[in-house]
Each structure stands twice: as structure tokens, then as C-alpha cells.
């Protein structure tokens, strides 16, 4: 504690700048891996502020790279920080940071898509699902090619309360390509409304925090970046298995600009297509001439419930695959000599 009464114990001691770290360890960004770094600590502080109050928190940072966001996290008075980085080149620079914050930071050299985060979080941070979110946070600026599959995986984990969510409603603050961030947060009827909007919003309170212009990164990516904050809901807005919701939403959006009826039809085998589509929309009380983007989460809940009811009445319906039926049909119409006979 200083004479002014300010706590200084959680602040990092003076360190080389991120730019110097990059030079020192020859960390040239690999374009093919979409590595774009944030060197401006005011920006990394801003991202971390949007994660909420991190005092005494357990934080996992995914893809720390040269460690800009890492420094901002370490400066917030966290209890512990776990970083998961895939690229070996960054490990020495991260070790330098870990030495500057003794006992606070653990480095995992691994792939976040396969790393079992649930094993890494300390048990005493666990909170009841129905209670407040645990003091556990995930923060990351990952390549776009990783952040989208990762959020889909984590949304399924939220639905099943496993993975990083065995600890309760773990909050996440993640970056995405701006267009993806817009889809995640898009409201009913907006141009960006898509599958991702429904999947994220039926499970989470999703908030768009701010946009980082591409020019803030080194090297500069072609697109701007959106920071998005997720808090899992106590009660998901749709109470059906994740895979069922995912199927209904995917099919309904398969003809984005057409009436929703057109996409819903693809849930059913040709022989019963029209009858079951009409039945499903009627049970759900959804106007067949609405476009998929005009449907609210409540309407997707009704559609998922209706589809579940039809699946329980029609054996094998859930496993029916529209694309497979199309493929078979095409095969049948091919001349004999072009068929792939095994
Ligand atoms: N967070 C740093 C920043 O903001 O400056 C680096 C951002 S860079 C866009 C993405 C980082 O994620 C890189 O360091 C990259 O090596 C790492 N990364 C990429 N794929 C990963 C994965 N599957 N698991 C863990 N880290 C990954």
C-alpha cells in the first residue's frame, strides 16, 4: 500500500513494452494463422473492463500471444490467471509476465479446442447454476477461425452445464469478426439475424461491448473486430436438447430470404413434407409467411417444442437428413454408368 493508500501489489512491475517483447522474441505474426496483435494497453484494458469486476477472480485467457490482454488482466487484482496458448513461440514472453506476477499466472501450452478447461478451474470457485455467476471468467482475442467454432462448442457446454460451465454460469468476453459479433447480438427482424443469434441468445445474455477498428491491430486485419460479453441465463429460453434446437434453427434458416415454411419443410421426408410442415407450424402457432429473421426466440421455442412433439409421434424423424435424401435422389437419376457402385 502506498502513502496515498493505493494498492500497488496487484500492479505489474515495469516491463518491456509488448512491441519490445515482439522484437525481443522475434514474434512476427503468422498471417496464415490469422495472428493480429493488440499493442495498445488502453485498448486491452478496455476489453478487460468489459469482463466486469475481476477482483479475486479466476480468469482463463485464451490465445494470449505476446500478452497485451494478459497484462491488463494481471493488473486487475485477480486471484489467478490461466493462459492457454497454442504457439510455442509465445511461451518465453508469457513466462516473463508470469515471473513479474509471482504465483498469479499459469501457462498452458495447448489447443483451447481440445483442452479440458473444467479440470483446470479450482473447485472452490464453483457456484450454483441458479445463483450469481461464479467469479470465473473467460477472456480472449482468438483468430476468427477459432472463435466461431469455439463459441458454438461453449454454447453446447452451457446447454449441458459441462465444460467450463461445471462451475456455474461462467462469463465470457471474446472478440469476433465484426459481422459475426453483429450476428451474435442481432435482434428479431434485423438484417444480421441468423442461426448464431438464436443459438447464442436462447442460452445467454449477449451484449455487444464495442468495436475495435482493424487498424488497432498489428498487422492490420481486413476487418473490424467486435468485443462480445456473454452471461449464461439461469433458465434457457428454449427447453429442448441443444442438438434438437440446433437442427430446428439450422433448417429454418436454410432459406434465409424465403418464407420460414420453406426451411421448415427440409426437416421432413418428402412423403410427409407438406403435411408435417403444416402441422408443426400450426402447433407452434407460427405464421408460415414470416421470414426466418423475423422470428423471435419465443417462436423458435414454440417451433422446437412442436418439432419435439412430432419426433415423439414419428419414429426416425429426428435422424432424417434432408441432404442425404437429396443425394440419394440425384444418384437415382444418374445414368447407370455414372453411379458409384461399390
Ligand atoms: N491475444 C493476443 C492479442 O490480443 O494481441 C493475440 C491475438 S492473436 C489474434 C490469437 C492468438 O491465439 C495467437 O497467439 C495464437 O497463437 C493463439 N491461438 C490460435 N489458435 C489457438 C488455439 N486453438 N488454442 C490456443 N491458442 C490459439
What features would you describe in this structure?
The protein has 342 residues and is of the alpha/beta class. It is built from 13 helices and 9 strands. The termini are far apart. Residues 35-38, 62-66, 68-69, 84-87, 90, 111-113, 141-143, 146 line the site of S-adenosylmethionine (SAM). Keywords: DNA-binding, Methyltransferase, Mitochondrion, RNA-binding, rRNA processing, S-adenosyl-L-methionine, Transcription, Transcription regulation, Transferase, Transit peptide.
Low-pLDDT stretches: 1-8
What is the rounded distance between the termini? 77 Å
The averaged pLDDT comes out at: 92
Rg result: 24 Å
SSE-based structural type: alpha/beta
Helical content class:
25-40%
Number of helices: 13
Work out the oligomeric state of the chains in this entry.
single chain
Helix/strand order, N-terminal first: HEHEHEHEHEHEHHEEEHHHHH
Q: What ions, cofactors and ligands are bound? A: S-adenosylmethionine
Strand content: 5-15%
Most strands sheet = 7 strands, mixed
Q: What spatial order of strands do you see in the largest sheet? A: 4-3-2-5-6-9-7
Number of strands: 9
User: Which outline best applies?
Assistant: elongated
Protein name: rRNA adenine N(6)-methyltransferase
Binding site for S-adenosyl-L-methionine: 36, 38, 63, 85, 111, 141
Family: Belongs to the class I-like SAM-binding methyltransferase superfamily. rRNA adenine N(6)-methyltransferase family. KsgA subfamily.
InterPro entries: KsgA/Erm, rRNA_Ade_diMease-like_C, rRNA_Ade_methylase_Trfase_N, rRNA_adenine_dimethylase, SAM-dependent_MTases_sf
Amino acid at each position: 500500500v502506498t502513502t496515498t493508500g493505493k494498492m500497488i501489489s496487484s500492479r505489474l512491475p515495469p516491463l518491456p513494452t509488448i512491441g519490445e517483447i515482439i522484437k525481443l522474441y522475434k514474434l512476427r505474426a503468422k498471417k496464415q494463422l490469422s495472428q493480429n496483435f493488440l499493442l495498445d494497453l488502453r485498448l486491452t484494458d478496455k476489453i478487460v473492463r468489459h469482463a466486469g469486476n475481476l477482483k479475486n477472480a479466476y480468469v482463463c485467457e485464451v490465445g494470449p500471444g505476446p500478452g497485451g490482454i494478459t497484462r491488463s488482466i494481471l493488473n486487475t487484482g485477480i486471484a489467478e490467471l490461466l493462459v492457454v496458448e497454442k504457439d510455442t513461440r509465445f511461451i518465453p514472453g508469457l513466462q516473463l509476465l508470469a515471473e513479474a506476477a509471482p504465483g498469479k499466472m499459469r501457462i498452458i501450452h495447448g489447443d483451447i479446442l481440445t483442452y479440458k478447461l473444467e479440470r483446470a478451474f479450482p473447485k472452490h470457485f464453483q457456484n450454483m447454476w441458479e445463483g450469481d455467476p461464479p467469479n470465473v471468467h473467460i477472456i480472449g482475442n482468438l483468430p476468427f477461425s477459432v472463435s466461431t467454432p469455439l463459441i458454438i462448442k461453449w454454447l453446447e457446454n452451457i446447454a449441458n452445464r459441462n465444460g467450463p460451465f461445471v462451475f456455474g454460469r461462467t462469463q465470457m468476453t471474446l472478440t469476433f469478426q465484426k459481422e459475426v459479433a453483429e450476428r451474435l447480438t442481432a435482434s428479431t427482424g434485423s438484417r444480421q439475424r441468423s442461426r448464431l443469434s438464436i443459438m447464442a441468445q436462447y442460452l445467454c445474455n449477449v451484449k455487444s461491448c464495442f468495436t475495435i477498428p482493424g487498424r488497432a491491430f498489428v498487422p492490420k486485419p481486413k476487418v473490424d473486430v467486435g468485443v462480445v460479453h456473454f452471461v449464461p441465463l439461469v433458465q434457457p429460453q428454449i427447453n429442448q436438447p441443444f442438438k434438437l434446437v440446433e437442427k430446428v434453427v439450422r433448417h429454418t434458416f436454410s432459406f434465409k430470404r424465403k418464407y420460414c415454411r420453406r426451411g421448415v419443410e427440409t426437416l421432413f421426408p418428402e412423403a410427409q413434407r407438406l403435411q408435417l410442415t403444416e402441422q408443426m407450424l400450426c402447433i407452434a402457432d407460427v405464421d408460415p409467411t414470416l421470414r426466418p429473421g423475423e422470428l423471435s426466440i419465443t417462436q423458435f421455442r414454440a417451433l422446437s417444442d412442436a418439432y419435439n412433439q412430432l419426433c415423439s409421434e414419428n419414429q426416425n424423424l429426428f435422424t432424417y437428413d434432408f441432404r442425404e435424401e437429396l443425394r440419394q435422389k440425384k444418384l437415382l437419376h444418374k445414368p447407370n454408368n455414372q453411379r458409384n457402385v461399390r
